[in-house]
């Protein structure tokens, strides 16, 4: 039974991995034919990220088999990226933008393991400070495999990592110093989060913070003098409408009496969003979303039962599923999107307003990564929180743009 569960979990994670990396395959084919007259710029980069673990729970603070605080974290990353041609409209609209794929090796305490991450990433220039120095940002998103996760007998104290495969999220703010036409030296801050998205329990998650130092090598990067710039294209404000269907799976924990219990069942989640979006400029969209959700783990309850004299109560055996109507809700949320080539990052805050009862009564937060498959269809990988702190569920979806305009 345990072997089957691990195989099923691994297959789900691999499916998510294939979906995620299809982003890059789609992206590489979307360069406009008019831009191919100028060469795409390629970049290879090696990062080292000495870090420290942020102590967010008792296990990391010393409630572990070694009885000591966990601090050690060191990451090495190897990345490939491509930039649009320097003479392209895309390069003029989105200064310094790049995107690509990478692999990372993480060195932690033995109880956590030394996992590998496979990820996509994107970054761009925030501000040019001098001719050779600029402030930049970068995000990474992927999967991390090879943890030493929670195990009821072998690693029972580990409430941080509950599965061998987790999501990997990373954000960087760094200074880029152009040493020459071919080389850059980069240094800055790096924050990382590892979580299984509530697909298994425990799901405490791991957060690390550190400094990033990297060396990047460029192929076909032109000098400022050799790059013939073209005017930035004009942008017309407009409204589009996005409709998205999503689904996911999740685990559930409950307090039964005075004891926290992880339920063995895997629960299904599904929903939709309909979002009119006002495009303020090439980088920012805002709107209001109508959100529907079905969560088969919502509002579980204990049936009334009789406990015989001298016998202990057993709430677990009397856990019941409510009717379908008590596990659906409709809400409204405000949405904002940060738009870049190939990828859009969406954030939202909302509240259920229809059938908002029990566990469906509260605020929810959404963070998602979107990428276009075609001019109309897009993929969505997102996550939802409940009341700004409680892990909720993944949002793996397919969406459609109405009145989509080409930029």
UniProtKB/TrEMBL annotation:
Keywords for the protein's UniProt record, in alphabetical order: Signal
Gene3D superfamilies reported in the protein's UniProt record: 2.40.160.20
First and last residue of the signal peptide: 1-28
Classification via Pfam families: PagL
Protein name, as recorded: Lipid A 3-O-deacylase
Natural source organism: Hoylesella timonensis
């Amino acid at each position: 039974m345990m072997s089957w569960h691990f195989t099923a979990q691994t297959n789900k994670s691999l499916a998510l991995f294939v979906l995620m990396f299809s982003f890059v395959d789609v992206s590489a084919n979307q360069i406009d034919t008019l831009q191919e007259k100028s060469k795409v710029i390629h970049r290879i980069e090696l990062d080292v990220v000495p870090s420290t673990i942020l102590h967010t729970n008792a296990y990391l603070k010393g409630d572990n088999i070694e009885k000591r605080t966990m601090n050690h974290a060191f990451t090495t990353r190897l990345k490939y990226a491509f930039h649009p041609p320097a003479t392209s409209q895309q390069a003029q609209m989105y200064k310094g933008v790049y995107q690509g794929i990478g692999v990372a090796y993480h060195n932690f305490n033995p109880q956590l393991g030394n996992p590998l991450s496979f990820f996509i990433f994107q970054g761009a220039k925030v501000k040019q400070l001098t001719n050779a120095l600029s402030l930049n940002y970068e995000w990474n998103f992927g999967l991390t495999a090879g943890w030493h996760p929670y195990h009821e007998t072998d690693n029972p104290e580990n409430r941080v990592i509950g599965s061998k495969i987790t999501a990997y999220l990373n954000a960087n703010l760094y200074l880029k110093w152009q040493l020459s036409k071919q080389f850059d030296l980069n240094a800055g801050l790096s924050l990382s989060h590892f979580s299984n998205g509530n697909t298994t329990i425990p799901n405490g998650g791991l957060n690390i913070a550190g400094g990033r130092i990297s060396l990047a090598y460029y192929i076909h990067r032109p000098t400022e003098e050799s790059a013939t710039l073209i005017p930035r294209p004009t942008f017309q404000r407009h409204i589009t409408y996005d409709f998205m269907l999503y689904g996911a799976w999740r685990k559930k924990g409950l307090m039964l009496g005075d004891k926290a219990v992880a339920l063995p069942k895997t629960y299904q989640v599904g929903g939709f969003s309909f979002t009119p979006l006002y495009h303020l400029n090439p980088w920012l969209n805002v709107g209001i979303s109508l959100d529907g959700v079905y969560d088969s783990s919502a509002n579980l309850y204990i049936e009334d039962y009789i406990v015989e004299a001298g016998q202990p109560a057993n709430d677990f055996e009397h856990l019941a599923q409510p009717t379908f109507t008590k596990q659906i809700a409709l809400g409204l949320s405000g949405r904002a999107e940060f738009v870049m080539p190939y990828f859009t990052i969406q954030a939202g805050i909302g509240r259920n307003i229809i059938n908002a009862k029990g566990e469906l009564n509260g605020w929810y937060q959404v963070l998602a990564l979107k990428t276009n498959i075609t001019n109309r269809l897009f993929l969505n990988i997102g996550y939802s929180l409940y009341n700004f702190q409680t892990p909720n569920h993944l949002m793996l979806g397919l969406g459609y743009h109405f009145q989509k305009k080409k930029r």
